[in-house]
Amino acid sequence: MSDAERAAVFLAVKRDWRALKVASAAHKDDRKIVFEAVMQDGGALQYASVSLKSDREVVFTAVKNQWRALEDASAELKADRKVMLTAVKQNWLALRYAADGGMITGDREIVLEAVKQDWKALEYASSTLKGDREIVLTAVKQSWKALEDASDGLKSDRVIVLAAVKQSWRALEDASKTLKDDREIVLAAVKQHGPALKYASAKLKADLEVVLAAVKQEWRALEYASAGLKAEARIVLEAARQDWRALDLAAPALRKGGLAAYAQKRQKLFGVPPRVFMRTILVGAQFPSARSARSSGQGGAEEAGGRSNSSSSGGGSVLQKLNGHGVHFAAQLKKRIADFAGVQWGEGHRTILLALGNITKHKAKPKWQKGV
Q1: Taking Cα atoms as reference points, which of 236, 232, 254, 253 lies closest to residue 245?
Q2: What residues make up the domain containing 277?
Q3: Fewest CB within a 10 Å sphere: which of 77, 111, 189, 302?
Q4: Could you tell me if residue 98 is inside a domain?
Q5: Residues 137-156: pLDDT tens digits?
């Protein structure tokens, strides 16, 4: 390569670094020519010779101009702290080019810099730094998903896990066994998504307040409640008000008539006739107690028996879901609730049917109801 030819290529590259792309192999191995190109655009490093891709000054200059130039650097320089820190400060994605298990992914300053930009950088951190509380908390505060990459030790850190669960109930799944037994953390999860009760400890699945909060959010949470609370009428009725299918999840004791006994106790507390109670309290409508009704001077039984009061109360009744579903659906639901209450014949059964029919728009009498 003559001096004149070298000077001509240098001038071409000086005018536009892309001239390096069509230069000869000898010119691509010329330090002065390549250095001129990478000073303009770090991407020019891809056209440099293998030896110059290992030149620290050339690579550092390229990376300083464009962090993506790191992709073309030698493995040795991808482990160079100064080069990597320069790249990561521009974009955390540069951390992806660091060698697995190398010094860079274990460098606290570099990893923290990357995580501050984006929580996803935690994935590339060394196992040691995945156990660094400041780094993990920095990531988790951005997204609860970062908890998945945290060390097992930090999955037992209450502050970190609570910060994650407050963002999303899904973080409870990655929490340690100890924190799945933490009442505040589990409550924070089930108030967002009732079925998150699935990940709670056995102790909290038997906690009345926790389970009730879960069921209020989503009736399907009843599936994960303890056997004892599946026999708790208050909880089952709360779920049934949302969806009649919750009755299938109740304990056998309730399905075999336990609800009837509960209804009788509740009726006495409200001091209203059985039919009024069935039309209002049990099926989810709003109706004042006997005491508040007397104090307001209203006739409780007569007013509660009207159609408008039962259907417009906004009590969240499961029966309000009947409207628009057709006679067959209404009939099946009536039968299911009647069976659930443990009353299938006689005056008690007719009272239930009358109460249900009071809210339902459909007037047709199903075949199974005839003769009752």
Answers
A1: 236
A2: 253-372
A3: 302
A4: no
A5: 999 999 999 999 999 999 99
316 touches 284 (CB < 8 A): yes
3-state SS assignment for residue 104? coil
Can you tell me the distance from the alpha carbon of 164 to that of 177, in angstroms, rounded to the nearest whole number?
A: 16
Structural tokens at position 1: 């390569």
Other Cβ atoms within 10 Å of 177 Cβ, number? 9
Asked if residue 285 is part of any domain, the answer here is: yes
Query: Residue 30: what residue type?
Result: D
Mean predicted confidence (pLDDT) in 147-176: 94
Q: What angle do CA 341, 211, 240 make, to 5 degrees?
A: 30
What the block records as the tokens of 180 is 């799945």
Phi and psi at residue 181, to the nearest 5°: -110, 10
Residue 84 CB coordination number (10 Å)? 28
Whether the Cβ atoms of residue 70 and residue 89 lie closer than 8 Å to each other: no
Helix (H, G, I), strand (E, B) or coil at 258: helix
CB 171 within 8 A of CB 165: yes
**What's the half-sphere exposure (Cβ side, CA atoms, 13 Å) at 180?**
18
For 361, residues 6+ apart whose C-beta sits below 8 A from its C-beta are: 322, 323, 324
Whether 368 maps to a domain, the answer reads yes
H-helix segments, 243-345: 252-253, 259-270, 274-279, 290-296, 300-304, 307-311, 327-340
What burial letters (b/e) apply to 45-68, b meaning 16+ CB within 10 Å?
A: bebbbeebbebeebbbbbbbbbbb
Does 311 reside within a domain? yes
CA distance 100 to 222: 45
When pLDDT is cut at 50, 70 and 90, the band that residue 60 belongs to is very high
pTM higher than the cut 0.85: no
Angle at 39 (CA atoms; ends 35, 40), nearest 5 degrees: 125
In sequence order, what are the residues at sequence separation of 6 or more whose Cβ sits closer than 8 angstroms to the Cβ of residue 263? Answer: 277, 278, 282, 341
